[in-house]
Design brief:
- 2 copies of one chain form a homodimer.
- Chain A has helices spanning 19-30, 54-69; strands at 2-12, 36-51, 75-83.
- With 84 residues, chain A is of the alpha+beta class.
- Chain A has a domain at 2-16 and 42-83: Mth169, Chain: A.
- Chain A has a 3-stranded antiparallel beta sheet with strand order 2-1-3.
- Chain A starts with a strand and ends with a strand.
- The model of chain A has no long low-confidence stretch (mean pLDDT 97).
- Chain A binds chain B through residues 9-11, 21, 24-25, 27-28, 31, 33, 35-51, 60-61, 63-64, 67-69, and chain B through 9-11, 21, 24-25, 27-28, 31, 33, 35-51, 60-61, 63-64, 67-69.
- Strand 2 (36-51) of chain A pairs antiparallel with strand 2 (36-51) of chain B.
Chain lengths: 84, 84
């Protein structure tokens, strides 16, 4: 068994309003950073997984994203796996 | 002025307990994914910034991270900038 590290990004879909991101975009102006626009805030998740191969680790992480980490109605996800 | 896209990861520091990550690690077992361990959950932030150069965009995003996006006592951040 090999240990892999996964880095997962879960973001609100483009069509979905992101109120937290909107609020932060507004705060940038007050900080004197008006050139920053269109802030969107999602989750960054790291995890360790033991698997016999990178393909199996990939499939397991995909399953975890689909079933637990992302809400596919409102969010999309991407991830990368590397050997630990 | 050029438009740049920034991708920022804000994660709880290693020494800091991450209760949300711990809870998700526990849930993995119930999903039949016991091989997933040490889940840590932070924020993934994307934003657009107009700047005269990549160096300036870099400095502005660093300022935004320090002053607004990350709590440096409990969190650390990394980011990448690319031309839009």
């Amino acid at each position: 068994m090999t240990k892999f590290l996964a880095e997962i990004d879960v973001m609100p879909k483009k069509e979905i309003l992101d109120p937290q991101g909107k609020a932060v975009t507004g705060s940038m102006k007050n900080l004197g950073l008006a050139e920053i626009q269109n802030v969107r805030i999602g989750k960054h998740i790291t995890l360790e997984i033991e698997a016999a191969s990178a393909e199996i680790a990939n499939a397991k992480v995909d399953e975890a994203c689909k079933n637990l980490l992302a809400n596919l109605i409102m969010e999309s996800y991407t991830f990368e796996i590397k050997e630990a």
